């Protein structure tokens, strides 16, 4: 990374870490290695009045050598149920991280956009087709599933959906599957436990 980009990136990191407005809405960023400003870890809070409220979502940020002329590679490392995020890999489908990227954009604008994406899913341009299908077919089930994932993976407070918890427990305690495998299969099959069992057994 050239000196000019390193100076810019260092300045942007300082902006995010010291800005009260970002801290107040739960946006944080830190270096993974103090000697390497191109490898970052961020955290965003789930927005209020969404299924992600109360969750703390971690992101990995890999900044390319030709930044800011190319966008950073941003992924969720906390699992999240959202049409524009892969439920398996955490890859994000967001225009500004692809063809709509501009050199004037910053870490601040990227993190704000990712947080805003949680408020405004775009199921017609999905990263995860299964999640998008559930969103369009049964929005209430989607919201309950997203909230459940937020409680399990992003440590959101509150009582978990009892019916969903019971189905996960049946697959984990009674049948020996791990929680992640059980929860993913149930979510993929709209919480139809028979279809989930059939899928897991195949």
Question: Which descriptors would you attach to this protein?
Answer:
13% strand, alpha+beta, 45% helix, nucleotide-binding, 4-stranded antiparallel β-sheet, 202 residues, 2 domains, Ubiquitin Conjugating Enzyme
Written account of the structure:
The structure is a single chain. The chain is an alpha+beta fold. The protein has helices at 3-18, 20-24, 107-119, 129-137, 139-153, 162-174, 179-188, 193-201; strands spanning 28-33, 36-45, 56-62, 73-76. It has two domains: 3-119, Ubiquitin Conjugating Enzyme, CATH 3.10.110; 129-201, no CATH class. The chain has a four-stranded antiparallel sheet with strand order 1-2-3-4. A hairpin with a 2-residue loop joins strand 1 (28-33) and strand 2.
CATH class wording of the largest domain: Alpha Beta
> Structural class per helix/strand content?
alpha+beta
Poorly predicted regions are none
Total DSSP E strands: 4
Cα-atom radius of gyration: 18 Å
Corresponding CATH architecture of the largest domain: Roll
Mean pLDDT: 96
Proportion of residues in helical segments: 40-55%
Report the end-to-end length measured between terminal Cα atoms: 47 Å
What share of the residues does DSSP label as strand, in percent?
A: 5-15%
How would a crystallographer describe the biggest sheet?
4 strands, antiparallel
- The fourth-level CATH homologous superfamily of the largest domain is Ubiquitin Conjugating Enzyme
Look up the CATH topology of the largest domain. Ubiquitin Conjugating Enzyme
Per DSSP, the total helix count is 8
Strand order of the largest sheet: 1-2-3-4
Coarse morphology: elongated
Taken together, the total number of domains comes to: 2
Spell the H/E element sequence: HHEEEEHHHHHH
């Amino acid at each position: 990374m050239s000196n000019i980009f390193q100076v810019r990136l260092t300045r942007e990191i300082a902006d995010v870490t010291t800005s009260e407005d970002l801290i107040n809405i739960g946006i944080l960023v830190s270096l993974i290695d103090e000697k390497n400003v191109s490898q970052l870890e961020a955290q965003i809070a789930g927005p209020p009045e969404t299924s992600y409220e109360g969750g703390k979502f971690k992101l990995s940020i890999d900044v390319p050598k030709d930044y800011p002329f190319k966008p950073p590679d941003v992924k969720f490392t906390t699992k999240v149920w959202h049409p524009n995020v892969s439920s398996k890999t955490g890859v994000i489908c967001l225009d500004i991280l692809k063809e709509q990227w501009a050199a004037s954009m910053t870490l601040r604008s990227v993190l704000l956009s990712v947080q805003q994406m949680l408020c405004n899913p775009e199921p017609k341009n999905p990263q995860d087709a299964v999640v998008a299908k559930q969103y369009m077919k049964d929005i209430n089930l989607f919201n309950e599933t997203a909230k459940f994932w937020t409680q399990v993976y992003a440590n959101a407070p509150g009582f978990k959906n009892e019916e969903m918890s019971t189905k996960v427990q049946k697959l984990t305690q009674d049948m020996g599957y791990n929680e992640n495998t059980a929860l993913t299969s149930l979510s993929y099959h709209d919480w139809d436990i028979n279809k989930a069992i059939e899928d897991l057994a195949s």
